[in-house]
Design brief:
By secondary structure, the chain is mainly α. Among the domains are: 190-221, no CATH class; 276-328, no CATH class; 350-398, no CATH class. The chain has 13 helices and no strands. It has helices at 22-29, 68-75, 113-126, 129-135, 162-169, 208-215, 253-260, 279-285, 303-311, 350-359, 370-378, 380-385, 391-398. The longest helix is centred in the first third of the chain and has 14 residues, at 113-126.
Length: 399
């Protein structure tokens, strides 16, 4: 069976509705085609569209012979009806500040913004008080002394100060300044309505702390508690036999960690054996360290050998991978030959390790560095910094 095709000649697309394909069916709905597929009027792209009358501009027609761009210029008086330029655009005029040496952009009255402000305020300061009051724009509400030069929050457009503007928005006064209602004055000695609270009043009879609870729906208007706070809700663990407080998902902290490790489910049913044992269980079952007779702490080791395992001295089976630091220490100091007692390092005793590491008198092989030693011999202050008993040894070896 052949697929049904569009009735428009030359179109081989699949039929959609009323003998047309999807494309020609939309044209039929818009009145471009008739029911037989004949064209009643041309498509929009086939008709030559009007263009802007300004020479060199090929943009679409907007209004009065202009495109939208040039129509805005016509409305602003830059172009006339014929498209002739009456005055240059603002970007084409490059004016500079009249102050010599100033390269800033032109702003007004021959000045840049910086020098214009300086000029305006200098002129104002030179005026007398009577002349100043003529220039100053005062707040239009009677009795208000605020002006545009004294108050930085002055609203020039509405000729009203910030305080009266707030009163109009809150409905305390109208635009003419007529008082509609009295301002509610808060009593400074008024406290919070919640029993036992001695904090200052903030809003709607509450202090700041209890007002936040009121907005969150914890308190009602009278200060009565509707529901407990999150910190006051103490639910017990849902697993039977456990009296601990629940942490998450209705179970306590201990059972929550076991649930995360997939030892138990949320109902308390055990899924696998517990790997860790109590001390009593270890004594009963004789669970001891792999390398000694102590009770196990983790991974089959006691605390001492578990530390060796963490440091990489032994592997999980107990096999030694490297010697301990204490086993690799030198028995005698490289420099003086005395046995290393207490703290030392790098094959030196405590005294000479400081001279190797801090003072830099000795190199790693135990040899003196002559240049640094000569400077110390000349300075008594540096000799005092070295411990007693080392000076003679150093001097003998150097000589």
């Amino acid at each position: 069976m052949k697929k049904r095709e569009c009735i428009v000649p030359g179109c081989i697309k699949k039929h959609k509705s009323k003998g047309f394909c999807r494309t020609h069916y939309t044209q039929y709905q818009r009145g471009i085609l008739d029911s037989l597929g004949r064209k009643l009027r041309p498509l929009q792209y086939e008709v030559e569209q009007k263009r802007c009358s300004i020479p060199g501009c090929n943009k679409k027609y907007g209004a009065k012979g202009f495109c939208t761009h040039h129509y805005v210029q016509y409305k602003r008086g830059i172009l006339d009806k014929s498209g002739k330029k009456l005055r240059p655009l603002k970007g084409e005029v490059k004016l500079e500040c009249s102050i010599p040496g100033c390269v800033r952009k032109y702003y007004a009255k021959g000045f840049c913004r910086h020098h214009y402000d300086i000029d305006r305020f200098n002129k104002f300061n030179k005026l007398s008080l009577k002349e100043r009051h003529k220039i100053e724009i005062k707040c239009r509400i009677k009795g208000c002394q605020k002006t545009n030069f004294t108050d930085k929050y002055f609203l020039k457009k509405q000729k009203i100060c910030d305080q009266h503007y707030r009163h109009i928005r809150k409905g305390i006064i109208d635009k003419s300044g007529k008082v509609l209602r009295q301002i509610k004055k808060c009593n400074p000695q008024r406290g919070c309505i919640v029993l036992g609270c001695t904090e200052k009043h903030s809003a709607k009879g509450f202090c700041k702390h209890h007002y936040r609870q009121y907005t969150n729906g914890i308190l009602d208007k009278s200060g009565k508690k509707l529901r407990p706070l999150l910190g006051e809700i103490k639910l017990e663990c849902s697993i039977s036999g456990c009296t601990n407080i629940s942490k998450s998902r209705g179970i306590c902290d201990t059972h929550y960690t076991q649930w995360r490790r997939k030892i138990i489910d949320l109902n308390g049913k055990r899924l696998r054996k517990r790997l860790r044992f109590t001390k009593e269980e270890k004594h009963d079952q004789h669970i001891t360290c792999k390398l000694c007779d102590e009770i196990t702490f983790a991974n089959g080791f006691c605390k001492y050998h578990y530390g060796h395992y963490r440091l990489g001295v032994i592997d999980l089976s107990g096999k030694k991978l490297r010697p301990l630091k204490s086993e690799t220490r030198f028995q005698n100091c490289k420099f003086c030959g005395e046995p290393i007692l207490g703290r030392g390092g790098r094959g030196f005793c405590e005294k000479h390790y400081r001279q190797y590491h801090v003072n830099g008198l000795i190199d790693f092989d135990g040899n003196l560095i002559p240049d640094k030693f000569q400077n110390i011999l000349e300075s008594e202050y540096l000799w005092n910094k070295i411990k007693d008993g080392c000076k003679g040894v150093l001097q003998d070896k150097f000589i």
